[in-house]
Specification:
single chain, PolIII_chi_sf, two-stranded antiparallel sheet, 7-stranded parallel beta sheet, alpha/beta, about 150 residues, nucleotidyltransferase, Rossmann fold, about 30% helix, transferase
Amino acid sequence: MKKATFYLLQQQKIGEYDAIISVACDLAATAWRSGKRVLISCETEEQALDIDEALWARDPEQFVPHNLSGESTTYATPIEVSWKEKRNTQRRDLLINLQNQVPSFISSFNQIFDFVPVEETQKAQARERYKQLRQMGWQLETEKID
């Protein structure tokens, strides 16, 4: 069964980062440590660069191997950070969706993490993604992030 978890954010920032970026990085790190290959799909290249910066800024013992889509690497990294116009085609286990809409490639995933931000416009977009996934038959759950 395809499963999507929507994380309800209660604040706009966590530390120095946007709450979505901070939580997405933590979720990616946890998923990687449990053996999953992760795609973080951003809305824009700027957001992807922010995710990349946040992952590099983690303490050394919290390091998460990752790369931006299109970067040449000898071996595929477990976490790829992409944006709308740029995505590698390697198979991934988990999609962390930061796009405003449901991505067209959603059917290649069985598990998705998405976010319901505090800001009203973004919250409305999240509701639409939730409705679309429900219509597609995904099992949906929500989890509050304090």
